[in-house]
Amino acid sequence: MTATIQKAATKNSKSMIQNIREEYNKPSKTKKRTISMEVSFICSGNEDRKPIVEKDKDKLSQTEAYLKLVETNWRKNFEKSYKIINELTGLDFKNDKFTVFVTNPNSNVGHYLGNNKIIWGHKEKWENYSTVYIWHEILHSKIRYNNEEDHQIGHSIIELVTDYELRKRLNGGKYEPFEKSRPMLLDAKRKILPYWKEYLKSDDKNIIKFYKYCKTLKSHIRN
Ligand SMILES: [Zn+2]
What we know:
Elements: H1 2-9, H2 13-24, E1 38-43, H3 57-89, E2 97-102, E3 109-114, E4 117-121, H4 129-140, H5 148-171, H6 186-201, H7 207-216, H8 218-222
Parallel strand pairs: 1-2, 2-4
Antiparallel strand pairs: 3-4
Helix pairs in contact: 1-2, 2-6, 3-4, 3-5, 4-5, 5-6, 5-7
The structure holds zinc ion.
Residues 136, 140, 155, 158 line the site of zinc ion.
């Protein structure tokens, strides 16, 4: 894989696309499709970690009602969304346990805190909004980056998986125009898009390999 990638990185973009198509169409020898992940939802005011303190009683009851909504939607969508994410990423989240600290929906917060902990509180801008973005935060636990270049590539890939493809498969619609909520990722996302479209055609997807592949294209993606 590494050798193929390095070779690909020196060729022009057309042959890179051919290369990625071949790479991702290789049959897999080990395929696991077990659902064993667990996601718990906790009102942020009930935990030691209190990123947003809900002093106001009304706000707290709003948060509790919102928690029920988020959890109900998550459970309702879980089987379908899991299958989509599993197919798109090749990740089975085997034995993964995540905790979502739900805050007031007006706090407009969505963040991966590390150690499989997520903080989430946002108005439902469209159908299945919280489900899509909790998957987004979950993917932050798998696609990591330490510098700005890798951040642009990794975060763009997370967006393509969840904010765009998962949303499209759950709700219909199309990708573009891209939302401008993270303007710093727009350019990288547009450049990754042709590779992403090829990746989507492959039968045996592996998002970590795809991320590594895109990192070898840094200069191509950045220029
Ligand atoms: Zn993110």
